[in-house]
Design a protein that fits this description.
Blueprint: E1 2-3, E2 8-12, H1 30-38, E3 43-46, H2 51-61, E4 68-70, E5 75-78, E6 85-88, H3 94-108, E7 112-114, H4 120-127, H5 131-137, E8 143-148, H6 152-164, E9 167-171, E10 176-180, H7 185-195, H8 197-200, E11 208-213, H9 219-222, E12 227-232, E13 249-255, H10 256-267, E14 268-269
Parallel strand pairs: 1-14, 2-3, 2-11, 3-4, 11-12, 12-13
Antiparallel strand pairs: 4-5, 5-6, 7-8, 8-10, 9-10
Helix pairs in contact: 4-5
């Protein structure tokens, strides 16, 4: 097992992982979060949430100023509060992506509804978030979240059309996410480790990474870390990893933050 004295870095998804899928509570993970802070182990959030959602949560968790990956890997943030740097891996920004989606809907008649189409109130109803938090979810930089309301045949054509526009579709816990090709969580994590090693881990230029996630969109990130925790989730589709080192993969029996704790207990000796 690993120890807290080693140069670790924890890379975590939020919804359904560190945060409860229904209540968004992280309290069951309090003891482990305290241990990480006491041993100066960085907690890198890697989520479909926006930067506007992640920054206040970092402060709440006690990891303010840490690097993080937002919008499923479309954007990477690193550096302290005074010299924050942003690496937008997506060559297409939010406005451009929404423009393409509007054109595709008008041309092919696709039936879907995105965050750009609705108010904060509707997003709050979809997610269970408070209206103020739902407003932060609309502050997008390089990806769009949507609900598909059309046939399977149209969905397959939609993927084709997105591919032609250099976009891809990623499945999250609640929504489908449209973003530029090649800008997923795995690519973002590799970019962060390469470009901001001192910010990512103060102890080592290449930390030992432990990733935790519950959805199919987490698979690229979980394939890019040294140790992977697949938290039991609610998605109908399984989290399929391509890595061959099965001994470095753990699948939790518990969901949400309880599963998050279970995964860290499996790989790290807490004492």
């Amino acid at each position: 097992m690993l120890t807290l004295q080693e140069p670790l870095m924890i890379v975590t998804d939020l919804d359904g992982s560190l945060l409860d899928h229904h209540t968004y509570s992280w309290q069951p993970a309090t003891e482990w979060l305290t241990r990480l802070k006491e041993h100066h182990i960085p907690l890198v959030i890697c989520s479909s949430k926006t930067a506007a959602e992640i920054v206040p949560l970092q402060q709440e968790l006690g990891f303010g100023g840490s690097p993080f990956i937002s919008e499923n890997g479309a954007v990477v943030h690193y550096g302290d509060a005074q010299s924050a740097l942003t690496g937008q891996l997506s060559p297409q920004d939010y406005r451009a992506i929404c423009h393409t989606l509007l054109n595709l809907r008008q041309r092919d008649g696709f039936k879907f509804i995105g965050f750009a189409d609705v108010s904060e109130k509707e997003i709050a109803e979809w997610t269970g978030l408070a209206p103020a938090l739902a407003a932060r979810a609309k502050m997008r930089e390089a990806s769009e979240s949507l609900i598909w309301r059309d046939s399977r045949e149209q969905f397959d054509l939609f993927r084709v059309r997105l591919n032609e526009a250099e976009l891809e579709l990623v499945q999250g816990g609640r929504f489908w996410h449209v973003m530029s090709k090649g800008s997923g969580k795995g690519a973002a994590l590799r970019w962060l480790l390469e470009h901001a090693p001192s910010s990512a881990s103060p102890r080592s230029r290449r930390p030992i990474t432990i990733g935790l996630g519950d959805g199919p969109n987490d698979a690229p990130m979980l394939d890019s870390v040294d140790y992977a925790v697949v938290i039991r989730g609610y998605s109908k589709n399984p989290v399929l990893l391509e890595r061959a080192d099965k001994q470095h993969i753990y699948r939790s029996t518990a969901r949400g933050p309880e599963g998050w704790v279970e995964g860290l207990n499996h790989f790290i000796t807490p004492s």
